[in-house]
Amino acid sequence: MIRKIKKTDESIYKTLAGEFYHSPAVLHPIPDGYIDRAFEELTSSDRYLEGYLIECEGKPAGYALLTKSFSQEAGGSVVWLDEIYIREAFRGKGLGKSFLEFLIGRYGKSAARLRLEVEEENTRAAALYASYGFKPLAYRQMYVEFDPTEEEN
Predict the structure, then answer these.
(1) Hey, is 83 helix, strand or coil?
(2) Residue 96 to residues 14, 47, 54, 144, Cα–Cα distance (Å)
(3) Fewer CB within 10 A of the end CB, N or C, for the chain?
């Protein structure tokens, strides 16, 4: 079952996100405050961030986060599968596939582009994404970070 994360899911969401950010799927852990801010955003509005709880056999099996933007290059709105995490005990049960089908069903006609990132060594996930038509972009991503909690002097 896939359902939107609600305020009452705070504990399980934070547990799942903590597991994800302490797994080999990410480059480094993030501060707990970032998870707190994401939870506040996804439970107060779905303008920028949507969160979904993925359940299997009545148990929390994982979560997914979608972010939204507009891209002139894509010709419209872009929905990013920003994070998807399936607990190890639930992998291989088709939950990632089910979420992709949900994502495409929800946004495949309204968004100009669906986008995601995958680690190069995660060949299993990359093969799944490719089977749904996802293709690599020949961009090298770069970033600079600012602390949104830092007050101006």
Answers:
(1) strand
(2) 20, 24, 9, 30
(3) C
Tell me if residue 106 falls in helix, strand or coil: helix
Q: Check residue 57 and give left, alpha or beta (phi > 0: left; psi -120 to 50: alpha).
A: left
Nearest-angstrom CA–CA distance, 23 and 21: 6
Contact 62, 92 (CB under 8 A): no
Enumerate residues 6+ apart whose C-beta is below 8 A from 1. Answer: 54, 55, 56
What is the model's pTM? 0.91
pLDDT tens column, 42-92: 999 989 999 999 999 999 999 999 999 999 999 999 999 999 999 999 999
- Residue 28 is part of which domain span? 2-131
Question: Per the structure, how many domains does the chain have?
Answer: 1
